[in-house]
Amino acid sequence: MTALLEVSNLSRVYEVRRGAWPFGRQATLHAVDGVSFELPAGRTLGLVGESGCGKTTTAKLVLGLVPVTGGEVRIGGESLPAAGTPSWRALRRRMQMVYQDPLGALDRRLSVGRQVMEPLAIHDIGKPAERLDKALAMLDAVGLAQHHFDRFPHELSGGQRQRIVLARALMLDPQLLVCDEPISALDVSIQAQVVNLLLALQQKLGLAYLFISHDLRMVRQVSHEVAVMYLGRIVEQGDPDRLFATPAHPYTQALVSAIPTHARAKRQRVVLPGEPPNPVDRPAGCAFHPRCRHATTRCRVEAPALRILADGRRAACHNAEQIA
Ligand code: SF4
């Protein structure tokens, strides 16, 4: 399957100061470190991991919202140009972002209709009447009524606001939506509705989703492939059913064991000791070894490469076969 989005060896480094000024020293923080994946049209890649693991930075790098330090992003075979250039703006139309907080993503002073039509106005697409027609059709496509057109964001529920964010993102006919925690700010009862809407839109429009979420059950439900990130790197990637049933990386094991299930009593919870290390002080060898119950001497000195296992998934662990 040809990839719509190709991400190769992507990295983002920040120079930071450790300790209080003026005594602190300069240090390098690898927020994203050698991340690679492909995403075909009409498919969903779920990106999971603890806060600070690099998921959102990866999303911003993909969209060109943060300059890359190394690696490449290609969309439809074209390399992503430097942000702000006319060619970047043209390519950006094909990739839109859906944020976690719909109220924060919308302008409270503007009516729903104006905000939904705004992308067409910014890109100078169509006549006013055509923009109006398209906005009304888009409201209908996301399950809102025509009377919502003249309402303001604060007059609507969280689920309705997220539908407006989606309608606005779809006005430029994108091929890729980067969804950063798109349901986590919504009531549980509304989350399933928004996820069902995303799935229906994908089916109808052939959209590709880069879906970032803490909710592993939801990620499993929507994703065709899942990538697990730890300290800026992908540590396991593959088919969701296989990855969730028999995780090959101890970090994935711990994440999966924390998913609440009806059969929870039968599943042994893997509790990781300690906190994730400071990315500025990345442990030597396998960065996960201070928290890993399977760590060996080799793990403390040799960083495992992300390699393909016999079942087709990828894992960055020396002992992945035995663990899976
Ligand atoms: Fe654990 Fe070693 Fe695998 Fe790292 S390489 S996850 S320390 S077993």
Mind explaining what this structure looks like?
- This protein is α/β, with parallel strands linked by helices and 324 residues long.
- The chain has two domains: 3-94 and 174-323, Rossmann fold (3-Layer(aba) Sandwich), CATH 3.40.50; 108-173, no CATH class.
- 33% of the residues lie in helices and 23% in strands.
- It has an eight-stranded mixed β-sheet, with helices on both faces.
- The longest helix has 18 residues, at 188-205.
- The two termini are 27 Å apart.
- The mean pLDDT is 91.
- The structure holds iron/sulfur cluster (SF4).
Major sheet: arrangement of strands: 6-7-8-3-9-10-12-11
Give the CATH level 1 class of the largest domain: Alpha Beta
Bound molecules: iron/sulfur cluster
- The rounded Rg comes to 21 Å
The CATH superfamily title of the largest domain: P-loop containing nucleotide triphosphate hydrolases
Describe the biggest sheet? 8 strands, mixed
Euclidean distance between termini CA atoms: 27 Å
Oligomer: single chain
Number of strands: 12
Contiguous runs where pLDDT drops below 50 for at least 5 residues: none
- Would you give the CATH topology of the largest domain? Rossmann fold
Number of helices: 12
How much of the sequence lies in strands comes to: 15-25%
**CATH structural architecture of the largest domain:** 3-Layer(aba) Sandwich
State the shape.
Answer: globular
H and E order: EEEHEEHEHHHHEHEHEEHHHEEH
Helix content: 25-40%
Structural class: alpha/beta
